[in-house]
Structure formats: C-alpha cells, structure tokens
# Entry
Amino acid sequence: MRRLHACLGAAAAVGLAAAGSTALVAGHASGATATLSDRWYAAAPYLMPLDNDPPVATAIMDATGLKSFQLAFVLAPNGGGCSPTWGGTAAVSSDTAVQSVIDTIRAKGGDVSVSIGGYGGTKLGQTCADPASTAAAYQQVITKYGLHAVDFDLEEPEYENTAAIKNEIGAAKILQQNNPGLYVSVTTAGTADGTGWFGKQMLLEAKSQGFTPNNFSIMPFDGGFNGAASQTSALTNFNTILQSTFGWDQATAYAHEGFSGMNGRSDTGEYFTQADFQIVLDYATGHHMDRFTFWSLNRDRPCTPVDNGGHTSGTCSSVAQNPWDFAKYSVQFAGVTPPSTTPTPTPTPPGTACRPAWNSATAYVGGDEVSYDKHNWKAKWWTQNEVPGASQWGPWQDEGAC
# Structure
C-alpha cells in the first residue's frame, strides 16, 4: 500500500487539458490547448504540489525531459460531503494554488493527471450516495482543469468497502463515457501473488459493470518485496489474474497492466534502487505494458545523511542518487531519451533548526511542529502521547532531520 500517501502528507492536486470532447474543452483554458500522448500520461510520476516540500515541476522538466505529472490527491472533505477537495481540506471550486502549478507545467509544453484517493483520508466513493453523484463530483475537477487523464487510486481502507468501490468504479465508467479520450488508470495494492483479495474483488466489480480502463496498475511495495525480481514476479502473477478475470490473452492483459513503484526506501523499509527501476522498466517495455509510474517526485532527491537515519521520508529517497534520477525512467518509458547531463542542483540549505521538543503530556493539533529523535515532525491532526514515528501511518509527518 502506498502508506506515505497518508503518513507523510495528505495533500492535493490535479489537472490536465482537454481530450477532444465538449466536456473537456469546457474546462479551464489556461494553457490547455494540446494533449500529450497516452504514453506520457502513462509515464507520469506522482507529485504532491501542496505538501512534502514540493519540488519545482519546471526544474524537473528541464533536468530530465519529463512532460507529465500525476498530481495527488483528490479526496472528500474531511468533515464529510460529496464535493472534491485537495487532501480533504482545500476545495477544488476555489483552488488557485494547484491551478498555478498546472498552468506553469502547461506553459512549458507539459501536462498533468489527477490522482483520486490514495492511502488514508476519506474518499468521495465513501461519502457520495451512488456512482452518478460520485462521477458528478469528479466531473467538477475534470471541467475546472480541462483534464486529459485521471487515476483512481483504490486501496486501504476504501477498497475494503464494497459500496465505495462500486461508486468509484461506476464513476470511472461514467467519466470515461462522458469525456471521450480521457485516459483512465486504476491503481491498487500489490502482493507477491499480484494483488490481494480486495484487489481481486475490485477487478470483479469492474467486470460486472463492464468497465475497462486504460490499465489496472499494482503497487509492488510495502508487502514484503525485495528488489526488482520480486516486483516483476508480482507483475507476472497479476497478468495471470487479469487474464482469468476478463478472459484476455496474455498480450491483451499486459496491454492493460501497469506498474506503480516506490523509489528508494519504502514505508516498511524495503529498498528500491535505480538498478531495480531499470530492471522493472525493461520488463514493462519488453512486455508492452501500458503504464510505468512511481511514488514520488517529492522523494526523488538525496537525503542527508543518505539513509535518512533509517527513516522513510516524504521528501527524499534514502538511497544514493542525484536529484531526479528516478524521473528519468519515466521519461524512457514515454519513449524519450533523457538529457545526458543534469543541471547543477541548488545547494542544500544549512541544517534546519529543531522545533520545540515533543512532550507526551501536551495536546497537539494539526499543523503543530515538534522535534523528536533529531527530526522535526508536523501533526496531521489532534494527538496526545503518540510518539512521533512510532507508527508509519500515525498522526506525525516526518519533516526531515534537524
């Protein structure tokens, strides 16, 4: 599961330009004049534009040749309701911050996809009454930003809710029908066997509704994986599941299959290096898979020290790397050769000062900052006597060493 979705920041994001339909063209017009190829939308790495020390997207574009970004995450409001927000807090209807990011990317010839859901938070499929109302909420996002692509990230705890998954899959089918040309991916948890029981139930729901997205992607990390060989084995097993579920032959299943990895140290302490990414990339291209992406660009930077003190970070990878090393694999999947040299990165600023020390007797609210174990931490919600870092999906967001 992509646990860092929740434990290292909930936030936001989105956008794409129109895909040749009236509904899409009706969206925000700023820079949304040309669509990228499906291969670029399939290669878009995840980026949190409002959280986890967002990198400058255009700097990544200049350094790597990347053109596409998978912005994360659209959720229901934290207090409930059937209207789209970034991270549960920022209403899409009044957003300007993410729109500015999208406009800047489009001005350089790029585009974005929006990711719906992720690990943790309340999803629109859980709060909206039915597939139609769920689709109407997502259509607000498509229309506002003129989207070309969307990603339904269906995992814990939502995918354990049968009604919610019915709403999400039904909404995806409606959006696909009402927005011709819209690129739709569905991302779910990966296991050694391909995907688990709930992932298989999600596939059966899609089959029962007659819904076929561009791809079903699995996340082969946080499940006892050990390098690229375990990931490609899971992809092979998932291909078999797709064949048996939908009656596809092997080639058709691969053409509807995607990989969503995690660069560097995973939430559970697995490590995936550049060499692992190259092996999986070769597997994906060799089997003509539809999608290759990763979580996340916010993490596609070196840590200081390299292993980040044995912590998984939302802002660096915990493996030896140059900035944006992992983004270059997405560029290769899109069919483009990355630049041979990387511009000199901005020097890392001096060490960050430590916040006031965490106190077990103090009640903290969302946004409060403390220091513990030589790291700064930010509270995501009200908490008391919960040790920062004790739980990988607990109330504290690791802001790095201090």
Notes: The chain has 13 helices and 17 strands.
